[in-house]
Design a protein that fits this description.
Blueprint lengths: L11 E6 L6 H12 L3 E3 L18 H6 L2 E2 L12 H15 L5 E6 L2 H9 L9 H14 L1 H11 L1 H4 L7 H14 L3 H4 L10 E7 L3 H17 L2 H8 L14 H7 L5 H24 L4 E4 L4 H10 L1
Helix pairs in contact: 3-4, 5-6, 5-8, 6-8, 10-13, 12-13
């Protein structure tokens, strides 16, 4: 079907979402092979080429099995944001839909998925000095200082944001400092109309099974060289991209704060907590249809019904 013939109703973005270690990569590849299409990653940690092992990025064989986009396209030295991701993915979809009826988005970063499906509001880029000052506050006084300031300037957003996520706190505060307007007031939450249909599926596993898969994945990462990868990145530990599960625990080990065994257990614990936060986000999206990681036929039926 040519680009001229393909209408909005013909174009379909299939979103495969879910928590870490739930089987998104494997199911996404099977679907892409069956539908003869491309995969767009929506895992913001897998954007960075230096973080292959600790982010459980697709293997070289998996990457070669079907075309992938937004995997290892950035260096951790580069700045990137969800607004840029939204724009770049929409441009890519315009190209993909010229030759493919379906494109598949796979990942666990809910904010990035939501940006592509419904859009985000245009927010100002603050002065670099503001962000630098907030990072210094974080380093000197800890996350509590950021939490206190956010609660003061934007209590509405403080009630909904993950207060343990310093990047989210800094973003909200720097917008307020730049504009004098709370971040919560700048977000209109009005969904944008996309020139394609969207079907969302989420991978659902019993909690005990998911926890076992997470623990096993961490052990595999260690076996595949995560400690060495983290050691190479340790000199750049101040970068925001490295403030994430799998690396920050090993940085504590390198600094003699914990033993290696304790660091590994912390990675497992924090990965399980991360999965829980992901599920909390996705459970709020009533457009998501929940399936098992092996239920490819059920997914295909949902595509026909959608």
């Amino acid at each position: 079907m040519t680009a001229i013939q393909m209408s909005i109703d013909d174009r379909l973005l299939l979103v495969v979402a879910g928590p870490t270690a739930s089987g998104k990569t494997a199911l996404g590849i099977r679907l892409a092979q069956h539908l003869n299409t491309h995969i767009i990653s929506a895992d913001s940690r897998q954007f960075y080429r230096e973080m292959k092992i600790g982010t459980a990025a697709p293997s070289s064989g998996e990457l070669q099995s079907v075309p992938h986009h937004f995997i290892h396209q950035l260096s951790i030295q580069e700045t990137y944001n969800v607004s840029r991701y939204e724009s770049e993915v929409l441009d890519l979809l315009d190209q993909l839909f010229k030759n493919h009826r379906v494109a598949i988005m796979v990942g666990g970063s809910g904010l990035y998925i939501n940006a592509v499906c419904h859009g985000i509001d245009l927010l100002p880029d603050p002065e670099p000095e503001i962000r630098l000052d907030l990072k210094k506050i974080l380093e000197k006084s800890g996350i509590t200082a950021l939490q206190d300031e956010l609660m003061q300037v934007d209590p509405g957003y403080a009630d909904t944001v993950d207060l343990a996520n310093p990047a989210r706190l800094i973003r909200a505060i720097e917008i307020y400092r730049s504009t004098g307007v709370p971040y919560s007031m700048l977000r209109t939450n009005r969904p944008k109309i996309r020139p394609f249909r969207i079907v969302k599926i989420g991978l659902d596993l019993p909690r005990e099974m998911l926890n076992q898969r997470i623990n096993s994945r961490v052990d595999e990462m260690i076996d595949h060289g995560l400690v060495d990868e983290a050691r190479q990145l340790y000199p750049m530990r101040h970068l925001n991209a490295l403030n994430t599960v799998g690396y920050k625990e090993l940085f504590d080990y390198f600094e003699g704060k914990v033993s290696l065994d304790h660091a590994i257990e912390k990675i497992k614990t924090n990965s399980r907590r991360y999965a829980k936060r992901q599920l909390t986000w996705f459970r709020k999206d009533h457009e998501i249809k929940w399936v098992g990681p092996e239920d490819i036929m059920q997914v295909l039926q949902l595509l026909d019904a959608g």
